[in-house]
């Protein structure tokens, strides 16, 4: 079943986070991920507000998790650590 990678992000260092975004996109695409929402308008109804919300669709939960654990994504993630506050969850789509 396909899965969604959902990230809620507060960027604290735009330059470093920009490098993360530059590297993360190709890593996500290499694992079959495609962005369906990235930084667009949103309404915060509950929980902690973070101005950047990203949703990517993957062919499976396993593909999304493999992407996260891949050396390419981990290299990208090195730039996000210390440059953002993030929550990331992978959710399987039940159709």
UniProtKB/TrEMBL annotation:
Designated name of the protein: DUF1330 domain-containing protein
Organism: Lutimaribacter degradans
Lineage: Bacteria, Pseudomonadati, Pseudomonadota, Alphaproteobacteria, Rhodobacterales
């Amino acid at each position: 079943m396909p899965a969604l990678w959902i990230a809620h992000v507060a960027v604290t260092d735009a330059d470093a986070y920009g490098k993360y975004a530059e590297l993360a996109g190709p890593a996500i695409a290499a694992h079959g991920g495609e962005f369906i929402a990235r930084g667009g308008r949103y309404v915060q109804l509950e929980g902690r507000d973070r101005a950047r919300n990203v949703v990517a669709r993957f062919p499976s939960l396993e593909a999304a998790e493999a992407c996260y654990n891949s050396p390419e994504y981990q290299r990208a993630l090195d730039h996000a650590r210390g440059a953002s506050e993030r929550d990331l969850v992978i959710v399987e789509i039940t159709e």
